[in-house]
Design a protein that fits this description.
heterodimer, A: Aldehyde Oxidoreductase, domain 4, Aldehyde Oxidoreductase, domain 4, seven-stranded mixed beta sheet, five-stranded mixed beta sheet, 18 helices, B: alpha+beta, four-stranded antiparallel beta sheet, binds flavin-adenine dinucleotide, binds iron/sulfur cluster
Chain lengths: 753, 316
């Protein structure tokens, strides 16, 4: 079995001789994307003209479809096919139990049950998108409605422990909280959120004989491909799934939806390529969302600010049929020292669309409670919030007692405070005015777990000395293409221009895909291994080739730099060697697995957010003016793409604090915000000065490169810094996110402002 | 979207003629509102008459020292005109407070006035909406009605008119010029363009079918300061929760009614010497809310008092 100690040896990424690792390299696929020539799934040209499918969705929240009238739709211009649960071709049955990491059948239009408003219940395929859209409106369903549970707040009493989970206790929380000289207690609420990826879920599918090709927009290649094969009951070798360019995933494309299954089925039925994309409105319900939470926080402390008791209990919801739990309490298990601790989750079953993973599941919601509670506690204690956090900095993981692999949270807070000018913050709210704005500062800590999953990769060098990286990995806009190219170039000592990256294809060596901020570490480590193996193969080739100046040398003495292989002053170009000695090129495989002892360490990424807001005390409007994040997330592979991930996350945090969320109409079970004009993500004008700084760090317990993820760290805690800044600006706490003008106004008025 | 036919109008006269000659015809200018509604089948015209390229995009001085803005002028063009910015800064600010630069580049002045409500239930075709389908009922009445009207609503509809520009025009006593289907030119005060919902919320305006807006005419600006303020959930590209336009003695409120709302009670109170806060309180005597929009009454009181104070040169 492997150990993290196997990763201590030097390797080209660590040595970074060419300096490519960490460099702010432009995106590998950037030119294609900005010139509109990167074909996204819906834009891929199939071998013959496609037909276009449009989904029909349910208009009740719970019940049974008793009849479907498709006559008008079938008679409409251009219509080729109309399916309902009564007419859809047979597919495999959904297994009773599924787990996220293994593929399982996901039949579309599987039965006559309606489980939520906006569920896919029909499909219309026509010769054009317009005809299909028009005809989809003509499919009429009759429902036998059943009473639905729709309002989260009204069903909190039915909350249960999520399946297989129970609370985690350390010490005696209740006794310690009761005895604590200073306590802070509160309930925070976050709303349901939608991913709102720019690119909707979409599929282009066609068959050649019994072989199916699908171009689709998903984060996980292999699992989706195998799931589709299971659904269609065909051998998985007969399904090729490609997902080359993805316009945002954020967890929402960790699963696939009816567009995939139905495009494949319809293409088979029509013997013609079929394209299906979800509409923006359908994206809100047919896919998953981040569920609402109610979070109860209790903190007990000594008068000098030492936490003696800490509790965070999160109640959240999922569809009656699902099991997904928003683990918003998990992060609190490793964040602050407190001898008596209680954390856990409760789940309410509702007749709403499926809850699921969304960027930093858990932390993104959870830190909006505890990190504000810490701010409130600091005020109660008369302490600076950074001081309070430093005072409660744990030596080892406060729940498990395991050592931290590395933890630079305090450094993030201290450096951030200095760079931001935290010393200019006045602890008493409402003291600073700039024109009509009251100005305040807030800060919050950030923590997000780090993970490594099994992955493979292959490297190929051709007779031109060009390296091709091949991996069934995805780039959801994060920079995967680019960092894989950097790792390959650095490992083989070739310029970036001599690297090609092929990802997003089920025929390539499997990688788990993008999610949980494990992508770069997982895919990259497998790539490094493939690169090392290719180095070895090239070195052996060179020293065994009589025509090479390196002939007769020792393979372990061969160096790779600037496209040249050398042993001391004997050298030749990599391309020359391959052309002569292996004209068909050389391939090497690589692999990474989590180390057997990886769990002996508590491993996370950390950060600190600092925010300045303005609050208009007349209208309750809040505007973010300035924000800084300082992060410690292992070695950074690409300064530019990493920074972009972090600032993107911070922006989302600002949105969670100020604008973002959906609401359920309690009468229908539908969502009120169904497009991007009403579901408010930030626009440019909402984001003032924004910067993210990455501390030098190497986490040698993480993987052979010492890197970690950054994709989810930036959002974690960011919204709490905004909320704390709002309080510092105007003296009002709103514990029900987002903090919109109407809510803040109520608080301002209650204060007589 | 339903299939439709299309023609590009060669003249205003031809446009109105075509509008009456063809059943279920509609004008299209920038298309920024109409096309969204057509995609959702909220609007289902069978024929589109493109008026966007008619030569009515100029901003011209009028003899009395006012300005005439052609109905086809883009929102961006109108807002950027130096005369507008100098003499009617309120109008420029109001236009720029709406939508995004892309929308304003495409949107016309006429289309802006004729844009339809942003009521969420109007957009959700699975819900009853009297404006979309007369007699169907109103889902907003008992629903998530955070954006609903506080003035002049009816039991049939509580939607608001979302235009920013129209609020400024209302405070500036602008007039609307039209060409009717019979070829008749009309001119009337902007406050007579939009109507209150009463029993017929499907009708947004008093225009007759096929009547084309050709221009908006501004009289010389009233004496006194001009202020436009809009409260919104995000800093740009968001419909307002409420807005106010102050032009000298004139006060108009936005996003609070089915039409731009001229605050005549507040104006009268101000003229009689009331403080801004007192004047707003007087205006809001006539306000009523529907649940989720209760906050709007307090918001408008505070926003109005602050904007009126700002116009008087007081610090807010
Ligand atoms: C996401 C989004 C956000 C927005 N936010 C705001 C905002 O904050 N504030 C704001 O004020 N507006 C906002 N708008 C609305 C925008 O201002 C309008 O869409 C635009 O002004 C409409 O102009 P248009 O020329 O594109 O009209 P079109 O879409 O072409 O037409 C709209 C309607 O007007 C009719 N029409 C057009 N021209 C004439 C004419 N000359 N005579 C008679 N009828 C005519 C058409 O038949 C149609 O019914 C927003 C729009 C969007 C899509
Ligand atoms: S308020 Fe008016 S627009 Fe909104 S649902 Fe009711 S009738 Fe329709």
């Amino acid at each position: 079995m492997s150990s993290v100690h196997d990763w201590e040896a030097p390797n080209p990424v660590k040595t970074n001789r060419s300096g490519l690792i960490g460099k702010a390299v432009d995106r590998y696929e950037g030119p294609l994307k900005v010139t509109g020539t990167a074909p996204y799934a819906y834009e891929v040209e199939p071998p013959s003209p496609a037909a276009y499918g449009v989904l029909v969705t349910s208009t009740v929240a719970r019940g049974r479809i008793v009849a479907a009238d498709t006559a008008a739709a079938e008679a409409a211009p251009g219509v080729l096919l109309v399916w309902t649960p009564f007419t859809v071709p047979a597919q495999a049955e959904r297994p009773a139990v599924t787990d996220f990491w293994s593929a399982s059948a996901d039949p579309a239009l599987e039965d006559d049950r309606v489980r939520y408003f906006g569920q896919a219940v029909g499909l219309v395929v026509a010769d054009t998108l317009e005809n299909a859209t028009a005809a989809a409106k003509l499919v009429a369903f009759s429902y036998e409605q059943e009473p639905a549970q729709l309002v989260f707040d009204q069903h909190l009493g039915e909350a249960r422990d999520p399946p297989g989970e129970s609370d985690v206790r350390v010490g005696d929380f209740e006794a310690a909280f009761a005895a604590a000289p200073v306590t802070l207690e509160g309930t925070w609420k976050t709303p349901l959120q939608n991913h709102c990826q720019m690119e909707p879920c979409a599929t282009t599918a066609w068959w050649e004989g019994d072989k199916l090709t699908v171009h689709t927009s998903v984060q996980m290649v292999r699992r989706t491909q195998q799931g589709l094969a299971l659904t269609l009951q065909i051998p998985k070798e007969n399904v090729r799934l490609l997902t080359r360019y993805i316009g945002g995933g954020f967890g929402g494309k960790g699963s696939s939806y009816e567009d995939l299954t139905l495009a494949a089925l319809a293409a088979r039925a029509l013997d013609r390529p079929v394209k299906i994309a979800l509409t923006r409105q359908q994206m809100m319900t047919v896919t998953i969302h981040r569920p609402a939470t109610v979070m109860d926080v209790k903190l007990g402390a000594t008068p000098d600010g030492r936490l003696t008791a800490m509790s965070l209990i999160t109640t959240t919801h999922c569809n009656r049929r699902g099991t997904f739990t928003e683990h918003a309490s998990n992060f609190a298990r490793s964040l602050y020292a407190a001898p008596n601790r209680l954390t856990g989750h409760r789940l309410v079953k509702l007749d709403l669309p499926h809850a699921g993973a969304m960027r930093a599941p858990g932390e993104a919601s959870g830190m909006l409670s505890l990190e504000v509670a810490m701010d409130e506690l600091a005020e109660k204690l008369g302490m600076d919030p950074i001081q309070l956090r430093i005072l409660n900095e744990p030596e080892v993981d406060p729940e498990t007692g395991k050592p931290f692999s590395i933890r630079q949270l305090v450094r993030c807070m201290k450096e951030g405070a200095q760079l931001f000018g935290w010393d200019r913050r006045l602890p008493t709210p409402g003291q600073v005015r700039d024109g009509r704005w009251l100005v305040g500062f807030g800060m919050a800590a950030a923590i997000r777990g780090n993970f490594l999953l099994p992955a493979r990769c292959s490297f190929f060098v051709d007779a031109e000395g060009v390296i091709t990286v091949r991996q069934g990995m995805t780039d959801i806009g994060t920079g995967t293409y680019t960092v894989l190219a950097q790792i390959a170039a650095e490992t083989l000592g070739v310029p970036l221009g001599a690297v090609r990256v092929e990802i997003g294809d089920s025929e390539l060596p499997p990688a788990p895909g993008s999610g949980g901020q494990f992508g770069a570490a997982t895919a990259g480590s497998a790539a490094l291994d493939a690169g090392m193996n290719l180095r070895k193969a090239i070195a052996e080739l060179a020293v065994a080739d009589a025509g090479s100046p390196l002939f007769g040398g020792r393979p372990d003495q061969v160096t790779f730099q600037d496209g040249v292989v050398a042993i001391e002053n004997r050298s030749e170009r990599l391309g020359d060697l391959i052309r002569r000695a292996a004209p068909d090129g050389l391939t090497a495989q690589g692999e990474i697995r989590p180390a057997a002892d990886a769990r002996n360490w508590s491993q996370h990424t950390y950060g600190a957010h600092f925010c300045e807001v303005g609050v208009d005390p007349v209208t309750g409007e809040t505007r973010m003016r300035r924000m800084l994040g300082v992060f410690a997330a292992g070695r950074i592979l690409n300064w530019k793409t990493a920074r972009s991930q972090l600032t993107g996350g911070m922006i989302w945090g600002v949105a969670s604090a100020l604008t973002e969320g959906n609401a359920i109409d309690p009468r229908y079970g539908s969502l009120i915000n169904q497009d991007l004009a009403s579901y408010l993500v930030p626009v440019q004008a909402d984001i003032g000065e924004l910067d993210a700084i990455m501390l030098d760090e190497v986490d040698d317990k993480a993987n052979p490169m010492g890197i970690k993820g950054v994709g989810e760290l930036g959002i974690s805690g960011a919204g709490a810094a905004v909320a704390n800044a709002i309080y510092n600006a105007c003296g009002v706490r709103v514990r029900d996110y987002p903090i919109t003008p109407d809510k803040l106004l109520a608080g301002l008025m209650a204060k007589g402002m | 979207m339903k299939a439709f036919t299309y023609e590009r109008a060669q003249s205003a006269e031809a446009a109105v003629k075509a509008a009456t000659a063809t059943p279920a015809a509609k004008f299209i200018a920038g298309g920024t509102n109409l096309l969204d509604l057509m995609k959702l089948e909220i609007e289902q015209p069978q024929h589109l008459i493109d008026v966007g390229r008619l030569p009515m995009a100029a901003v011209e001085d009028t003899a009395d020292g006012g300005l005439k803005i052609g109905a086809m002028a883009s929102n961006s063009h109108a807002a950027a005109d130096p005369r507008v910015r100098q003499r009617y800064p309120l109008l420029s600010e109001a236009i720029v407070a709406g939508g995004s630069p892309q929308l304003r580049n495409k949107a016309s002045v006429g289309g802006n006035l004729m844009q339809r409500t942003r009521c969420a239930y109007f957009y959700d075709t699975s819900k009853p909406c009297n404006k979309r389908q007369p007699g169907a009922g109103c889902a907003a009445l008992e629903g998530l009605n955070r954006n609903a009207a506080i003035f002049g609503a009816s039991h049939a509809c509580i939607a608001t008119h979302p235009s920013d520009m129209a609020v400024a025009l209302a405070a500036l006593d602008a007039r609307v010029e039209t060409l009717s289907p019979t070829g008749q030119a009309r001119s009337f005060p902007i406050l007579e363009l939009h109507r209150l919902p009463a029993e017929r919320p499907e009708m947004d305006t008093h225009l007759v079918p096929g009547e084309l807006i050709t221009a908006v005419v501004l009289p010389p600006p009233p004496k006194g300061a001009q202020v436009y303020r809009k409260v919104r959930d995000r800093a740009s590209y968001a419909g307002g929760l409420a807005s106010i336009a102050v032009a000298g003695p004139n006060v108009a409120l936005g996003m609070v009614a089915h039409k731009p709302w001229r605050a005549v009670d507040a104006e009268a109170a101000l003229a009689a010497g009331a403080t801004p806060a007192e004047a707003m309180a007087r205006e809001l005597d006539g306000a009523s809310s529907a649940g989720r929009n209760d906050f709007k009454i307090a918001l408008v009181a505070r926003l109005g008092a602050a904007a009126l104070a700002e116009a008087k040169g007081e610090r807010t």
